[in-house]
Design goal:
Helix 4 (87-94) links the parallel strand 3 and strand 4. By secondary structure, the chain is of the alpha/beta class. The protein is 42% helix and 14% strand. The mean pLDDT is 96. The strands form two sheets. An eight-stranded parallel sheet has the order 1-9-8-6-5-4-3-2. The structure holds flavin mononucleotide. Flavin mononucleotide is lined by residues 28-31, 33, 52, 54, 79, 81, 104, 125, 146, 149-152, 178-181, 199-202, 205, 291, 293, 295.
């Protein structure tokens, strides 16, 4: 850190160096929310924008890939769900020359080959130590250690103890922390835990470029971490065959309140599932999920994602200086 106490020094880490970016911040590849505009905005702000390729709906993805390549010249990438994405879609995505591909939830081995063969950095999100070992075996260049505070789907570990355990296991491979990080203090904490940066989802839903509907963004502004709950009712009702080990965290609503702890009953109730799907299609938030992590408390505005990226980095820098007694 320089004469200014480090206030303006960039937060350079093994992750920023490996990806050629300015700030140790990655946008979580949020399905239906992190499109090309949001990814490009985070990349233009100095982070790594990742499109939420999810299970690989090609029509959606091709549109968003055109948007990201048209809007930014900085590094960007795409994330897929390891348990369900089609290798052919990953190969087609590689034709757009992403600077990184991220795989989450499930064994990455089947999808990793085309990515590493193309020389594209492979990021793998892990939720326990076995998955971390599997990711390293698959040739991951970056691991994301995700704690259960995260919005959306995830495993059972908590961010605070899980991140340093994964960092110890990964050795020279950079690790990003994910789950509950929504401001500069959280990013600073991630770096103090031995992470080389943070992967942030929930916070970026409330930005100008996010594809989240306005009523979802309002719910995030109004909500707190205590309003979130993890469960499988939404996946069961929408017929999404997520492995049961990855429940999803979302803002509680009428539907999740009604079915919490009664997932088996819901699985057998076709009328209730049909009712859900009809309301989901209308975007009715009494049923449809607002996936959200425990960092929801910290969302108080809807900035541009580029500004937010710069702010997170500057605030993290200031928090580290403060913590060091500067
Ligand atoms: C709305 C939303 C959608 C998500 N969709 C995906 C996804 O499609 N693929 C994925 O790997 N992770 C997804 N995640 C999880 C993120 O990768 C990440 O672990 C999480 O957002 C980090 O925690 P945070 O939300 O507290 O920042 C999603 C998260 C949210 C909030």
């Amino acid at each position: 850190m320089g004469d200014d106490g480090g206030m303006t020094a960039p937060l350079r880490t093994a992750f920023t160096t490996a990806l050629g970016i300015e700030h140790p911040i990655a946008l979580a590849p949020m399905g239906n929310c992190a499109g090309g505009a949001l990814a490009a905005a985070v990349s233009d702000g100095g982070g790594l924008g990742l499109i939420g390729g999810a299970r690989g709906d090609w029509d959606w993805l091709a549109r968003e890939l055109d948007i990201v390549t048209g809007r930014t010249t900085r590094p960007w990438g795409v994330g897929f769900l390891a348990w369900s994405a089609d290798p052919a879609i990953v190969r087609r995505t590689l034709e757009y020359r992403p600077h990184a591909v991220m795989l989450s939830f499930g064994n990455p081995a089947a999808l990793a080959g085309p990515v590493t063969d193309a020389g594209v950095p492979l990021i793998v999100q892990v939720t326990d130590l076995d998955e971390a070992r599997q990711a390293l075996d698959a040739g991951a260049d970056v691991l994301v250690a995700q704690g259960s505070e995260a919005g959306g789907h995830g495993g059972a570990r908590s961010t605070l103890p899980f991140v340093p355990a994964v960092a110890d296991l990964a050795g020279p491979v950079p690790v990003l922390a994910a789950g509950g990080i929504a401001d500069g203090r959280g990013l600073a904490a991630a770096l103090a835990l031995g992470a080389a940066g943070a992967l942030i989802g929930t916070r970026f839903q409330a930005t100008q470029e996010s594809l989240a509907a306005p009523d979802m963004v309002k719910a995030l502004l109004d909500g707190t971490g205590e309003d979130t709950e993890r469960g499988r009712a939404i996946d069961i009702a929408r017929g999404a065959p997520w492995p049961p080990r990855y429940p999803g965290r979302a803002l509680r609503n009428d539907f999740t309140r009604r079915w919490a702890g009664r997932e088996d009953e819901l699985a057998a109730d076709e009328a209730a599932q049909a009712e859900f799907r009809e309301a989901f299609a209308r975007g009715d938030l009494r049923y449809a999920p607002v996936w959200a992590g425990e960092g929801t408390d910290l969302i108080t505005d809807v900035p541009s994602a580029a500004d937010l990226t710069g702010r997170l980095a500057a605030d993290a820098r200031a928090a580290l200086v403060r913590a060091a007694g500067g």
